[in-house]
Each structure stands twice: as C-alpha cells, then as structure tokens.
Amino acid sequence: GGGVCRRHDHIRDAIHSWLEGLGHGSNTEQFMPEWDDGDTRARLDVVTVNPRCGRLVVDVTLMDVVFPGASVKAAKLLERCEKAKHKRYPGKGLYPFVLDTRGRWGREARLFVRAVVSALPDEQRISAIKQIRRKVAIALHTRVAEQMPSAAGCPGAGSCTNAS
Fold first, then answer.
1. What is the DSSP pairing of strand 54-63 with strand 43-50?
2. Quick one: which of 63, 106, 116, 160 is 20 to 30 A from 77 by CA?
C-alpha cells in the first residue's frame, strides 16, 4: 500500500514543522531546475535558507536495514545512500536525510541539524536538537507501527487479533 510513501512524507513534514517552529521559512516538495536530469524533474523534500549556511536542501530517504549483522553494516549502507543522492543532485547545500526504519540517522542528517542549529543562541541548541530527534522518531515509528498489520498479512490496521 501507500505506507512507505506516508512514512517518507511524515518524516518530511516533521523536518518542515521543526524548521517552521524555529522561525526558518521552508518549502516542501520544491522543484530544483538545476538538478533536473533529462526527462526527470528534481523535486526535493524540504528547502530552507539558513543565515549562516545559505540554502539547505533536504532529500529524505528511508531504508529497511533488517538482516543478520545489520547493526554493523547499517552505517555503511546509509553512507552509500547519501553518496548516491550527491551523485544524483551534485552541488552545494544538499543534505540527504537518510534514516533506517529502526531509527538510525545517517551522518548527513545529523550534519543538517547541526547546520540549522548553528544559527541559534547556544542556550537553545540542545533543546532544538532534542525537538527534531523527538519529531522524527514519532513520525517514523508511528508509521512503521501502522504498517505492521499489513506486513503480517492482516487486512487492515486495527483488524488483527492476537491468536496466541
């Protein structure tokens, strides 16, 4: 179903909401003509302007990193996805916001948050970081939980009963 898209969109919306709450204007689903590729238009998830860093562009990607030894390899897989985003969208200001469905953040998602909070007074930075961590975790794990019934073969959320 559309669970994967909803999960992605809720992460995008959490980032947008966080930025708006900090007083940063931002746009979602922004077309970026400089990154168009032939017949494919580049539409990135969140675009904002930071007083210190200039334009910041976020493209959200969620990965299912669930296999034996995943915790060891997850960082490498997240990094590989970040590199692929930079290859697709070359240039300054892109922050691939890569997460695995268990909640692990890619390096560049963390760098994006640091770039945004760098413009805040020191006493507000920790609170802002906690806020985005909480917003993203709630958005991610709520949507993952919604998908569990369908993954178990149940016809719809809330319609499964525990047989054990």
1. antiparallel
2. 116
Distance of CA 17 to the CA centre of its chain: 13
**Position with higher pLDDT, 2 vs 13:** 13
**pLDDT for residue 140:** 87
Strands 26-31 and 43-50: antiparallel
Assigned token pair, 128: 């802002």
Judge contact between 116 and 19, C-beta under 8 A. yes
At a CB cut-off of 8 Å and minimum separation 6, what does 86 contact? 94, 96
- What percent of the chain has a predicted confidence (pLDDT) above 70? 80
CA dist list (Å): 101 to 61, 85, 98, 160 = 10, 18, 10, 22
